[in-house]
Amino acid sequence: VRSSDQAFDDMPDMKIEGEMLELAEHIIGTKKGCFDASTFDDRYELAVAELVKAKIEGRSLPKKKAPVASKPSDLLAALRESAGVGAKKVAPKRSAANANRGTSRTAAGKAARSKPAQSPTRRAS
């Protein structure tokens, strides 16, 4: 087991300021308290016990649910929302896959429409 000094040696020293610091303090303030194990429901343990029981009884095991695909979210906005701190309205950004979609075709189409086709010039011989 390493000491905490060794564990954090590789981490760079960072100064957290402003909104990030306030948000972190708010989250810590709302989450701190005593842990009461009697109020904790271990759903993983219950699910494993149900699987073992089904296997012993010869029942078919439940099928895995397909994961629901979700859009990547802004971590800071999600933290603000979960902490109940008013989030600033941010214009939606284009996803990385669609960042340049349409720009090259549109620009090329405009350029082609704006300039009339020129016939090649011939030199007199």
Tell me about this structure:
With 125 residues, the chain is mostly helical. It has five helices and no strands. It has helices spanning 4-7, 18-31, 43-57, 75-83, 103-114. α2 (18-31) crosses α4 (75-83). The mean pLDDT is 77.
- Overall geometric form: extended
What is the radius of gyration computed over CA atoms, rounded to a whole number of angstroms?
Answer: 29 Å
Mean of residue pLDDT values: 77
Beta-strand fraction estimate: under 5%
What percent of residues adopt helix (DSSP H or I)? 40-55%
Oligomerization = single chain
User: What's the number of extended β-strand segments?
Assistant: 0
Structural class: mainly alpha
- Largest sheet at a glance? none
CA distance, first residue to last residue = 89 Å
Which residue ranges are poorly predicted, with pLDDT under 50 across at least 5 consecutive positions?
Answer: none
Number of helices: 5
Order of helices and strands: HHHHH
Give a short summary of the structure.
The protein has 125 residues and is mainly α. Helices cover 43% and strands 0% of the residues.
Distinctive features:
125 residues; mainly alpha; extended
Topology record:
Elements: H1 4-7, H2 18-31, H3 43-57, H4 75-83, H5 103-114
